[in-house]
């Protein structure tokens, strides 16, 4: 391993500090995005479950069977992938 002279290390200190600060900001932003995406997905799944439960148990429709859920799921999945 090559050892840097002490004067070189002292000269690099501001750049290393700037790098560390920017790296921290990027990591914090990344964590925020992940948390927000997780929250959004969780809320979406909860809302979908609520729609299915309401339709299946209140008599608004003939009821939701497992086969109906599969058809709806496959249809939605196909539409989502078409738009990507």
- Give the total of beta strands: 0
Shape annotation: rod-shaped
Mean pLDDT: 78
Count of structural domains = 1
What composes the largest sheet?
Answer: none
Structural overview:
This protein has 84 residues and is mainly alpha-helical. It has one domain (10-82). Helix content is 82%, strand content 0%. It is built from two helices and no strands. The longest helix has 52 residues, at 6-57. It is rod-shaped and about 75 Å long. The chain starts with 5 loop residues before the first helix and ends with a helix.
Brief account:
The protein is mostly helical and 84 residues long.
Reconstruct the topology from this structure:
Layout: H1 6-57, H2 66-82
Keyphrases for this structure?
0% strand, 84 residues, mainly alpha
């Amino acid at each position: 391993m090559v050892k840097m002279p002490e004067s070189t290390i002292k000269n690099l200190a501001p750049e290393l500090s700037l790098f560390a600060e920017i790296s921290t900001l990027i990591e914090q932003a990344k964590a925020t995005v992940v948390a927000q995406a997780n929250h959004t997905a969780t809320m979406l799944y909860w809302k979908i479950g609520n729609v299915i439960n309401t339709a299946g148990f209140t008599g608004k429709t003939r009821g939701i069977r497992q086969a109906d859920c599969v058809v709806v799921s496959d249809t939605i999945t196909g539409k989502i992938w078409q738009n990507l």
